[in-house]
Task: structure prediction
Amino acid sequence: MSFQNPVFIPGPTNIPEALRKACDLPTMDHRSAAFADILHPAREGVRQIMKSADAETFIFPATGTGGWETAITNTLSAGDRVLAARNGVFSDRWIDMCQRHGLDVIVVDVAWGEGIPADRFEEILVTDTAHQIKAVLATHNETATGVASDMGAIRRAMDAADHPALLLIDGVSSIGSMDFRFDEWRIDIAVTGSQKGFMLPAGLAILGFSEKAMSASRHAALPRTFFDINDMSSGYAVDAYPYTPAVGLMNGLKQACDMLLAEGLENVFARHQRIAEGVRAAVQAWDLSLCAVDERVYSNTVSAIRTPDGFDANQIVRHAAEKYGVAFGAGLGQVAGKVFRIGHLGSLTDVMTLSGIATAEMCMADLGLDVRLGSGVAAAQEYYRMAQPAQLRKAA
Result:
């Protein structure tokens, strides 16, 4: 690989130089007053990016997987019933985690490439008149398939069923890049990580908890120590942690939140949509298709691109790395070898994305696929020219 080239994997994402420097701190006493100037602004920044007025935010030295475990162990007890859809690798892994913790999981299996069926959730919740289902789990953006599901529709389904279950959302590859509305969707727990929309190295599990979820944590009986939010809350109350925090990463998170908020969340979301539309224009020009079944579920952070039957899509990923020093995402699970993924989230621009599209074209041409050099690049260029950001048009 070449460190001079941007990466086009769905995470970890490209790290802006300012954030690299923000993470590069000398050793700090994490029990000193100086740490409070990192801790509390980082938590407040996360709250704003999740679009919440009063969610309790927690930052653990872990990854998104640790965030999943934090969510379930702090709100549920062994034998509790939860409802979840399986439509990709990451939703499946969260289900597997629940089952390993002794939870009773109602699994709604969905074809990979489709979104979570809110209507099916509503049917199941309506029949649960005894309210045995304690939590609904949903993956906002399934990174393996490039599918974004409608979280607002899931909340409406729960309301229509008049069901009191907690709503737990995996926003690992959406928060900080796609519109996410913690308060409006009345989310109880949102989970994300540092290495995607926040443009940092992996190493932080980042969560938002509603008041309802905080209350549930006082009665949940699943074992937890490292991920105990009540211990963490006690630490935060005295400007500290119950153990050693990742101080450099947290300083990076503080600055990442400042960068996103300075750009303006709506501008961040518009940038990601614009970049994604350019990639989708290229895919159409190549006469290929996305794993996502239609535009209603297209992800603005990752595109999983189907290759022709009988062709091993992993060849594109290997070839890009070996010949051109560029990283694309491989297919995972049921779509392994059938798709390659272009991640278009985090620190990325139209111009950077064009280099990824051009590299993908060269790889496919090298490997004998019927792709004309320049076709996808031209389609994306035309889109980006017409969809140029407003601030750049004004500057011109």
About this structure: Residues 17-262 form a domain with the Aspartate Aminotransferase; domain 2 fold (CATH 3.40.640.10). The radius of gyration is 21 Å. The chain has two domains: 17-262, 264-395. The longest strand covers residues 133-139.
